[in-house]
Amino acid sequence: MTDAASSTSELMDSIYRTQRHIYDLTRKYYLLGRDRLIRELAPPDDGCVLEVGCGTGRNLIKAARRYPRARFYGIDISEAMLEKARAEIMRAGFAHRIELARADAASFEAHSLFGRSDFDRVFFSYSLSMIPQWREALGQGFSVTGAGGRLLVVDFGMQQRLPAWFRRLLMWWLKQFHVAPRAELGAAIDTLGKGRTQELYGDYARIAEVVR
Q1: I want to staple 212 with a disulfide (CB 3.0 to 4.6 A). Which of 26, 65, 108, 145 is the partner?
Q2: pTM of the model
Q3: In which element (H, E) is residue 10 found?
Q4: CATH of the domain at 190
Q5: Confidence bin at 9 (pLDDT 50/70/90)
Q6: Which helix (H) or strand (E) holds 3?
Q7: Residue 147, Cα to own-chain centre: how many angstroms?
Q8: Separation between Cα atoms, residue 122 and residue 137, nearest integer Å
């Protein structure tokens, strides 16, 4: 792991060492669009799905329940979050179908981590806005998306059609957690291939997809 990645890892651990215990309870009220992304994953039977920035494992667990024939993998740079995710996955009874590893989203080696080089689905759920090298992470995720596979993203939008006071308050709040919405997400998706980006809830959030 590079010095920059190590610094990011230490920062994330410092933020979430305590927050991880209440993360899912609080975030369900404003991380909108996550369940829609899970519904749209639709991996093939016996397919493999990778989440980049898996956090507490919440999305992987929900996806494993919805797609019982698929296998799931997750990476995160925060060991504190991975500890929480492993405990939740064990509690949910999915340790045999969900595998986790600590890695930098911008430069991970899928084969050395999981013994496979590509996945049928790769997704980012409110993680790109926390990754300093987010464009590199997006490109790396696409590079391990198998032929005919899909990469999906859901994250904060720019709140363009919401009240100005709400946008200012939300941006201030996100900054406290080192979260920065990516205004150029759609353009970055388009550089990868034939993709789509859709604004949700007055551009509170954006969901994007590109097919390899």
Answers
A1: 145
A2: 0.87
A3: helix 3-19
A4: 3.40.50.150
A5: very low
A6: helix 3-19
A7: 21
A8: 11
